[in-house]
Amino acid sequence: MSEAHRLCALAEIEEGQARGFEFGHRSVIAVARDGNLYTYVNWCPHLGIGLNFFPDEFLDQERQFLMCANHGALFEIETGECVSGPCQGEALLPVPHQIREGDIWVTLVEPPT
Ligand code: FES
To answer: Class for domain 4-107, per CATH?
Structure first.
């Protein structure tokens, strides 16, 4: 089912910031970078679990990559591709999003089981 869900206002995600949003058992990461917004399923392709240990903590120390806290995989913010770590060459699952009247809406994606 491809129902749209509102994440938040676009203005609530600051440049260079990542935030997480829960929808039941599903979780979405939103990152703002260089004026663009990227949204992914909070699901690491290494073990099929969430990336973060703490709320909204998805970036590495230099804030250049999305990072999985479990084993340190690094993912390019723009593509979701894993460039370092145990799932190198795999990628985060993109979540389609739209901006409507200043709000971010996503179509939830089920990760593989
Ligand atoms: S679960 Fe993400 S790197 Fe291992």
So the answer is: mainly beta
